[in-house]
Description:
mainly alpha, two-stranded antiparallel ribbon, 9 helices, about 0% strand, hydrolase activity, Membrane-bound metal-dependent hydrolase
Amino acid sequence: MAMFDTHLAAGTVMSGALATLAVTHENVPLSLALGLVLAGTLGSVLPDIDAPQSRPTRVMLSIFAMALSLLICIRLVSSIPFWALPLLYGICFLGLRVVLESVLQRFAVHRGIIHSIPAALVATTATAVASHTLLGSSALQSWWLALFVLAGFLIHLVMDEVYAVNISGAKLKRSFGSALKLYGEPFPTLLCLVVLVALWLLSPPIPQSIVSLPQALWGAVFH
């Protein structure tokens, strides 16, 4: 299993390289590039939230709670008195932090459903929904951010599988196959699919330029 620092470094490098390609070849505005790098880097460490007792996970949960609280305050800034904003932020942060940690401790199992392709799709679609709904980003910007979260998430899963191969001994470790998988335990898998469908129904339409991106990449590589 790759360490947190390794995932973070790989996610940062990959996201920077992909953001450069997006800006130079896909007409992505330079102003979005930093957001893409952050999204890819976040995606590259996101699967490890299924270890709720680890220090990196606690840090990530706090960042999530901070970000969500900030977004809530931004959305409500015109509806409440200025003096109430710090109080609202504090309540939101503490509430979200406790709820997120409680949910993870109740349902998360390391190398469980969160280390899977369905979980990667949930993270991707959730990013598009959050960006479009909470930040007011366009559908195109939202799906670009979502794609970078997906890329980071997948590179994490691939690295975990690579680290599960003992090359010197020409054998597979016990953890092989536990990251890049299509399903886990029945109930978590079903719950993950239900959440994915719900998020998909809430997500903005995928722009044609995003739909045609795989074909464009294929043409750029093989022609």
